[in-house]
Amino acid sequence: LCLIDGAAEAVRRTNDAGFLAVLVTNQPQVAKGFASREVIESIHARLETDLGRAGAKLDRIYWCPHHPEAGHEDEVTELKGACECRKPTPGLLVRAATDLNVDLGRSCIIGDSWRDFGAGRSMGVAVYGVRTGEGSRLLPPGIEPPDLIFDDVNEATAFVVHGVPEVEILATRLAQDAPSQRPKLVAVSGISRTGKSTVAHALRTALGRKGIETLHVRLDDWIVPRKERAPESTVAERTQSASMPEIARRLLGGETVEAPGYDPHDRRGGRIVRYTAPSRGVVILDGVLAGSSGLQHLIDALVYVEAADEIVEARTRAFYRWKGCPAGEIAATLRRRRSEEWPAVRKQRTGADLIVGSSDASRRV
Known about the structure:
By secondary structure, the protein is an alpha/beta fold. The chain is 36% helix and 16% strand.
């Protein structure tokens, strides 16, 4: 047994913040005859020991021994077939919520597999993916993607515990504003890998707690698939930013807008996504050019997200390694971004109402 780097720190942070840390896991090896219950329980005991040595603890472990398919040589027949506890069904999460009196409205699931995401959606909690383990790559039909994907569980729990305090200011202002005849439009922009989607999600969560219905529109759903791009396409061309003002007008006018979808892992077209804005809530546009000049006359508030160049570069390298890209391609991508994309995107900073991630953050909200 070997803990993933940062896992103990993640659990300890969760403990220190007063959250429950619960492990919910499928263990089909028992049904397949590869391991006994005793072996699995000994592994879990070793896990708890290793965490304990690092000053961390799990409040409970729930596990499913079943597997739906027969045919393994030494399988345990009575554990084969459908059950209510194997993720993506939410049976184990229901047990945890009942046993521990969990506040689901302030809970989340962090996982690396579509089974985790499906279970979380069934429970109505926030769903966060990580790029370790299975890497949050495969999404079968009918399974929604996670709300956010982090590099690892340590990064995910840091967000869960600390959030994005800056957005509370904007959420309060939006909640206090007089009702209008259309939804408010908030743009969250910044160069790639600064954390725009994290900020947009945090704002949506803050607004939800104030009773404000919110739609989070991911402009990445309009990114042109890699094979359809011109060799030297600009950031505006890759993101189809020229079409964004019309998309925003349609959303604010009450129409349902259909996006072609984009899969960031293989850079191909994804599944179609449909967006419908609440009649008098808030629409959040999340994208590198969400605050571009063509949209500014529609925007009620612009949030610009930034991070130090070395942080962005490290995140970019990690992201493209997750995609399976070789080092040479990653280096070339960074060169193009520094020379063309970053200057174009950073022009939006001047007009921002809120800057997140900077030590000299300006707040005009």
